[in-house]
TrEMBL record:
Gene3D superfamilies: P-loop containing nucleotide triphosphate hydrolases. Keywords: Transferase. The keyword Transferase applies. It comes from the Bacteria. Pfam families: Sulfotransfer_3. It comes from Alloalcanivorax profundimaris. This is Sulfotransferase.
Length: 378
């Protein structure tokens, strides 16, 4: 979402420019046409990507508000890394042509603005963003249907998507002149096995956060996005087009294979029972992650779980381990500078009563303990 001058009754973080709204809608409504155009681009720029391979792609994933954006930004600053940026929307299916065009157009001077989440993270059109989901939705139109399992394991096979996806990454690497691909995709938590089959040398950074603080942040964001999308309907359209269903008027739970549980979570949310709904969702998501890692030794070796509390409490050591797992060399000075800006949030506090805290702990504690938390209640 692009900020513009706000009117008295709107939040600038939820404003969507008319150009972006109409162009984004055009791409969203015609996925097959853009797949064909992407394939045409691949054929035409074949010489430019002939020697480009996807080497050890890096995937950052976690339930929203677990620190994925902070980790994405630090990794994306590395000179070897290419990732999607805000400027890649809406013509993401043709990354080579679109980025070449952008490089020829004089860019206006930008001032970084706080993103719609109101979490202190400021962005420009060149900031990294999670846009890969647009590719998944183009090939899997029902991938965000809560009534269907979203899990893709090692046995999944979709040759058309796999060819397009690999070519897309290679084109992005070529036009950015980088060696390593980085993607933030929270929905990739349900696709870890599939992605690891596609790229056996991939590295996964899986973010998690203490349930009480995590749920408090999730609830805060839900209220913020409902208010913002209610005032600006184009913001809701935008979120659907980029595949962000974590919050807002069209919030959807990821179905990790339990249809009844996913439906129940939806019923809790729709009934206004936010605390229990988020607690059951947190437990469902991270139980799926824990099971996936436990059952797949190769995936477990390729993945590193990063606790938000460690990122904030011991930032330098955590960042050093994070970069090492990703296979990215980084200097001590860079680590020190990055660590200096990391700290626990101070702009909100969990405000649960005793009954709500007990409920969160009862639901999340068994899963939280699998990730080293002493209880589910922080």
């Amino acid at each position: 979402m692009n900020a513009r001058q706000p009117t008295p009754d709107t939040d600038p973080g939820f404003q969507v420019t008319p150009w972006m709204h109409h162009a984004g809608g055009w791409v969203h409504r015609h996925p097959r046409a853009w797949i064909k155009l992407g394939n045409l681009e691949t054929r035409i720029v074949g010489d430019a990507i002939a020697d480009v391979t996807v080497d050890r792609p890096i995937y950052v994933a976690g339930l929203a508000r677990s620190g994925t954006t902070i980790v994405l930004e630090h990794l994306a600053a590395h000179p070897e890394v290419a990732t999607h940026r805000y400027a890649d929307f809406p013509f993401l299916p043709v990354p080579y042509w679109w980025n070449r065009w952008l490089s020829l157009v004089p860019g206006a001077t930008e001032q970084a603005r706080e993103r719609a989440h109101q979490d202190g993270i400021k962005v420009t059109s060149k900031s990294p963003e999670a846009f890969e989901e647009m590719l998944w939705m183009a090939f899997f139109p029902d991938i965000h249907d809560p009534a269907r399992s979203a899990v893709l394991g090692r046995d999944a096979s979709y040759p058309e998507f796999e060819a397009f996806y690999d070519q897309h990454i290679r084109k992005l690497l070529a036009v950015r002149k980088r060696r390593r691909y980085l993607a933030k995709g929270n929905y990739n938590l349900a696709r870890l096995g599939y992605l690891h089959r596609l790229y056996p040398d991939a590295r996964f950074l899986l973010m998690i956060r203490d349930p009480v603080w995590h749920i408090a942040s999730l609830m805060k964001q839900q209220d913020l996005f409902v208010a913002g999308e209610s005032k600006e309907p184009r913001a809701l359209d935008h979120m659907r087009r980029v595949g962000h269903y974590e919050f807002g008027l069209d919030r959807r739970a990821i179905n990790t294979g339990d249809d009844k549980l996913t439906a129940y979570i939806g019923e809790l949310w729709n009934g206004g029972n936010e605390v229990e709904g988020w607690a059951r969702y947190w437990a469902a998501i991270y139980e799926h992650v824990a099971d996936a890692l436990e059952q797949d030794p190769a995936l477990r070796e390729a993945a590193r779980v990063v606790r938000y509390e460690d990122l904030c409490g011991t930032p330098r050591d955590t960042l050093e381990a994070l970069f090492a797992h990703a296979g990215l060399a980084v200097s001590g000075d860079t680590l020190e500078q990055a660590a200096a800006g990391l700290h626990a949030p101070t702009y909100y506090q969990p405000r649960f009563n005793d009954r709500e805290r007990s409920l969160i702990e009862a639901i999340t504690a068994p899963v939280a303990r699998r990730f080293g938390y002493s209880t589910g209640g922080g």
